Amino acid sequence: MNDNRNLILAIVSSVVILVGFEFYSAWRYPDAGQTQSNQTTASDTATPKPSAIAQAPGSIPTPDSAQVSVPSIPGGATPSAAEVQMAGRDILLKKSARVKIETPNLHGSLSLVGGRIDDLTLVKFREELDKTSPEIVLLSPSGAKGAYFADYGWVAEGVTLPGPTTVWSPSTDTLSPDQPVTLSWDNGQGLTFKRTYAIDENYMFSVTQGVVNKSERSVTLHPYGLMSRHGRPEVTGFYILHEGMLGVFDETLKEVDYDEMQETHSVQTATTGGWLGITDKYWLVALVPDQKIPVTTRFTYRNDSGLEKFQADFMGQPLTVQAGTSGEVTSHLFTGAKEVKVLDAYEENLGIARFDLAIDFGWFYFLTKPIFYTMIYINEHVGNFGVSILLLTVLIKLLFFPLANKSYVSMSKMKKLQPEMVKLRERFGDDKTKLNQEMMALYKREKANPASGCLPMLVQIPVFFSLYKVLFVTIEMRHAPFFGWIQDLSAPDPTNVFNLFGLIPWDPGTVLPEPMWIGVWPLFMGITMYLQQKLNPQPADPVQAKVFMFLPILFTFLLARFPAGLVVYWAWNNLLSIIQQKVIMVKMGVK
């Protein structure tokens, strides 16, 4: 029994140390992993080698960031390179002719210089809880802080091709779900390049690259698509969530985080079908090549004088266009929120292989996704995401009611036998062999099995972890209100015990670091955890007993800065467990 408790103690201690280190790192080094240079560099996209599949004679061009017009500085002063890099995106956007993008879910524009999609904001999602706060900025032009954009083009030898400085002619001044836009450019050598952008009502662009050959010879070109991100973005830093490069290649998910890219610099994969891109916790930008044509994909990393650049790209099969004919290739680009139903619809309608894996559902995918859909179904009927969490927890408790009952009955028996066990330890404390024999005889006589209380709980662990994962990674919880002071279930409880939950006009942040703040729900969670421990059999070893009784205090501090939705779930689950365990103990006559 002591060995079991020591094992449990070791596991709990390891978890506490790991989670505590995550919180300490986030508090002590809040800007770690967000290094951003203030310098401009010669190129803003990497130059991949020719595709092993396509055998391209050239490579994807390296556009010069200097092609971005220098923004105006008040007073007429000439801006430095640092000022250009940090310039407001709005100033940069005004420096080039653009086609407006207007959909129910996206606002933005595409630049006629280079034909890039480099300006997008998300209509339904705001930076802050306040509905008047700015829309989430997803894409920004090269030269702006946090530049993030998508580009398309061709690779060929002996052909004048459109590039980052090419000025395209648009067919219309607005791109909308019912109005695509076609960009055209004549190279003066008999070739007319066309690029048609279409968009649906959600987040998916359709990109058709075409060539009209009016020359007297055939040409062979290799289509490519790329997305580039300048500067390392802020990440949550939790081990249960992937943020960075990811894709599905030949039905297999591949994830590469920013630190790994810094070490490897390049990851190349050949595939037929699938997709690749860069993911944040809630947002995704992904290239989706033609699902039936082989392509070579790459993730690349460069550090140009301190400015980190992450890129995802693909190069397709060669396209030969005979004289007097035309040719085209079509691919897609996803730019938006990782809403499960939207991703599932694209997977079904466009045949995008395993597109829902853009959401990090984790190892227990087969449990996590059904749990998510159940929660969404409940939310559609009750209209409150917090209430959905409570009801879903009840459903899971009902599902595992027989197993939990068995566990609590076993723990109750052990608690009832605790006085006898203490007496045996006092009598045979120095004789371990005799003590174990007497304890086994006691268990047999009373029909108690110490292990039977643990096994049913082990079966439930994957389900509870899956629920935890759903609450942590899904965007549906972001800015979702509960009741009272909880207006955002994805943010920590805003109250603080150190100013009596707002009754004292004092800001604890002036003295205490943020990880030390404790709100109402974390405090309630700690209390329920303490009460639940009091119902369990207490360790005979007084040192172990003190350590276990200290854990509720430790977890209260650790979970205080977790999203409120997770703390609500944990506290509610503890409360239901206490009620169930207490009822069983009363029935069994356990004090």
Structural overview:
The protein has 2 domains: 35-237 and 297-331, Beta-galactosidase, Chain A, domain 5 (Distorted Sandwich); 369-588, no CATH class. The chain is an alpha+beta fold and 591 residues long. The chain is built from 14 helices and 20 strands. The chain starts with a helix and ends with a helix. The chain is elongated and about 105 Å long. Strand 12 (244-249) and strand 13 form a beta hairpin. Mean pLDDT is 80; it is low at 1-11, 17-42, 47-57 and 63-86.
Descriptive tags:
20 strands, single chain, disordered N terminus, six-stranded antiparallel beta sheet, alpha+beta
Per DSSP, what share of the residues sits in E-state strands of 2 or more residues?
15-25%
SS summary, helix count: 14
Tally of extended strands?
20
Radius of gyration from CA coordinates: 30 Å
| N-C termini distance | 22 Å
Short description:
Helices cover 35% and strands 24% of the residues.
Provide the fold topology.
Layout lengths: L1 H27 L52 H5 L3 H5 L4 E5 L3 E6 L5 E10 L8 E5 L8 E8 L13 E2 L3 E2 L5 E6 L4 E9 L4 E10 L5 E12 L13 E6 L2 E6 H7 L1 E7 L1 E6 L3 E6 L5 E11 L2 E9 L3 E3 L4 E12 L2 H10 L15 H18 L2 H15 L1 H16 L1 H11 L3 H15 L8 H19 L46 H16 L6 H18 L4 H25 L3
Parallel strand pairs: 1-7
Antiparallel strand pairs: 1-2, 2-3, 3-4, 5-11, 6-8, 8-9, 9-10, 10-20, 11-18, 11-19, 12-13, 12-15, 14-17, 15-16, 16-20, 17-18
